[in-house]
Amino acid sequence: MTPETLPAADAIPDALAWTVIVLLGLGTFAIRFSFLGLLGDRPLPEWLLGHLKYVGVAVFPALVTPLVLWPEATQGAFDPLRLVAALAAFAAGWRISVVAAIVAGMGTLYALQFLATLI
Amino acid sequence: MSRTDLAPLPPGPGGDAPRAEAAATGVRAAFIEGFWACAPFILIIVPFSLLFGVVAREAGLDILQAMAMSVLVIAGASQFTALALLQDQAPVFIVLLTSLAVNLRMAMYSAALVPHLGHASRGVRAAVAYLMVDQAFAVAIRRYEQDPPLGPSARVAFYFGGMSLIAPLWYAFTLIGAVIGRAMPAALSLDFAVPVCFIALLAPLLRTGPHILAALVSALGAIAFAWVPWSLGIIIAALLAMIAGRRCELWLARRERAAP
């Protein structure tokens, strides 16, 4: 926590902030619009459709793995509690439901963190 | 499963009134179905957007800037990335390239949605694109590949039904976070809500052997290519995983055909 009395020396200049906000917004939109916007209902070749079926299962594990194995909150140090909580979330999501996955994930982490304070 | 890919879509707009009426109820039902399918993610969106509002203020953005970012970008991970780099006083193009690389996966979502939503008008597709967040994509694609299949307009309605819930919450809680600002106890480990969210999106998609194999390749790829700059390792891992899934599927089909 930086004390309130500190001058805002490290404040982000207005012009810089707005430049990033607007360009990031436009760039992100361009990425999202790309295929859907430009291809429309032009039929995609069979081989491409065959691969696109796997986009979801191909992207999410790649996003999850680094966040679980070397989380920023621990400065990249492996945290076994987070791994166990992630596995609990996965098991609940796999067997029960989306809500169960979320509750099991956060709930397991909180429970383990609480237990860890007792040791 | 591939039936949505192959379903013959009626060319051009349907003309007859009774069919249009039946379609209208189907469309409303699909909108509501989409709304409820995305409802569980309130649990993630609320704390995450609240956190973004707080962190944005701590980083030195004013309330308007924090809001503008959530409204214009509407992509949590890249918003946090941009904030962190701005705080580190990284050059503008580094901030932009790094944050956009985080969003590059959405080009794959965009392509994967073409067979399902490509029929919509350009304006609708632009709205779909604007709202293309992880939850929207994962929940929609899961539904599109399920039975009973949704008609073309119902697929659009399902998508917007989900986002009619997610997007306003994202804006509102960014605002609340930015206004109340400061003090979000680190003990809440809210950062962990992000992987939990992705896990919740992933689990229902693992329906077949090839899907599971693709997910494994993706996770291992993310570890193997973690050294690649601009978080492009994630894109490499995803491409390899898609190839693995497709190869596995073709191999299984060939084996089945070969069997007596």
TrEMBL record, chain A:
It comes from the Bacteria. The chain crosses the membrane at residues 15-39, 51-71, 83-112. InterPro entries: Brnchd-chn_aa_trnsp_AzlD. Keywords: Membrane, Transmembrane, Transmembrane helix. This is AzlD domain-containing protein. It comes from Palleronia sediminis.
From TrEMBL, chain B:
GO terms for cellular component: plasma membrane. It is a multi-pass membrane protein. It holds the Pfam family AzlC. InterPro entries: Brnchd-chn_aa_trnsp_permease. It comes from the Bacteria. The chain crosses the membrane at residues 34-56, 63-86, 92-114, 156-180, 187-206, 212-245. Its main location: membrane. It is found in: Cell membrane. Belongs to the AzlC family. This is Branched-chain amino acid ABC transporter permease. It comes from Palleronia sediminis. The lineage of its organism: Bacteria, Pseudomonadati, Pseudomonadota, Alphaproteobacteria, Rhodobacterales.
